[in-house]
Amino acid sequence: MCSKMLFGSRVAVKRSVFNAAVAIVLLAGCGGGKAGAGNYKLKVSVNPANGGSISINPNMESYNEWMDVNVTATAAKGYEFEGWSGDATEKSKSVTIKMSGNKNKKLTANFKAVPTFTDNRDGKKYTKITVGGQTWMGENLNYAAEGSKCYENNAGNCEKYGRLYKWEAAKKACPSGWHLPSYEEWTTLTDNVGGEDVAGKKLKSTTGWDSNGNGTDDYGFAALPGGFGDSDGDFYGAGGYGGWWSATEQNAGDAWTRDMDDEDEEMGRSGYVKSRLFSVRCVQDVEGIIEKSAVGAPTTSEEAKRVAEKEQIKAERMGGELPGGRSRASIQRVVMQNMAAISYAFNRRLREKPGLNGKIGVKFAINQYGKVISAQVVESTMNDTDFESIVVDKVKSWDFGKIDKPDDVTEVVYPFVFSQ
Questions:
Q1: Model confidence over 213-236: pLDDT tens digits?
Q2: Which of 75, 215, 231, 248 has the fewest CB atoms below 10 angstroms from its CB?
Q3: Which domain holds residue 224?
């Protein structure tokens, strides 16, 4: 009778999600008694109790021998999944348990608290994650800066998705110690998770996307489909599309974004007019000058750190304005925000020229609008004119922000030190 019910009938089973605070016991088989063919128990639990939840499919009151049970762990906000213990020890969030071996099964999903950061400007707290040496906010920025809006002007959407920003506002919206990521920094992120073709799936949240377009959220990035806004006041795409600004211009009127949708597993790249509104995800500033070795592992050279610290101390001590109206401290901040792009270029060059190291001094001029109007190498021990040109081109792309000093130009000489 039992066998006929299991194998001769179609049974509709509802997928269930169990609260993490309670250990759930599923009775497998047709009745109680010892474990054996057609009579298995699966006990699942969560550690710590508020760290997340577990879903089980199929959720049946009885499991026959050799049946497969799919178990998935979902982290609560502020936690990330560490791995399973008991009858499975995998690190993946989803595992399959085979009801066999003449024994009951026990499974625990283990979670750990994610580090957090508090924005002192408004007291909002954000999770932060580390992926391949970069530290990112684990959720979209929700700081009410001028030039930003909630999707459809609904405050509830700001709480859910974060705010949407015009490009100029996005460049200045991140809190002190964080910045809007460059095109290269976004590329570093996608490279570190396996490439653009799979980055969407691995970085998307496990919930919140239309058409079952959720991801696996392997790194706690929890990308959500916040949609976008046009300058005419219309909004589009929430639930099915997410786009994030980069700090890098595509041309005078457009800037680069990274985007995902509910139909694909990739993270794409696009160029959009700067007056559109997209989400912002901040990345933490690099402390000192960070280089990368030829194999891509981040390292911090002592010499580079000393140079960066020396320049920072000099900026703080001297203070005031340089000719042209800009402070040394404001220039140092923009340089350090863009240092990741320089280190990325150095890493790529190392693959072509192992052993490359040295110092490049670049003199550049900034006009009142914050644009670098000229840049040139004034000192170099690199013996690599191609890489020197790359550094100069990077510097020319930087934006130092407009100041109210008509026709004034600030000239700076900055040393970049590179070592493995």
A1: 999 998 889 999 999 999 889 999
A2: 231
A3: 116-284
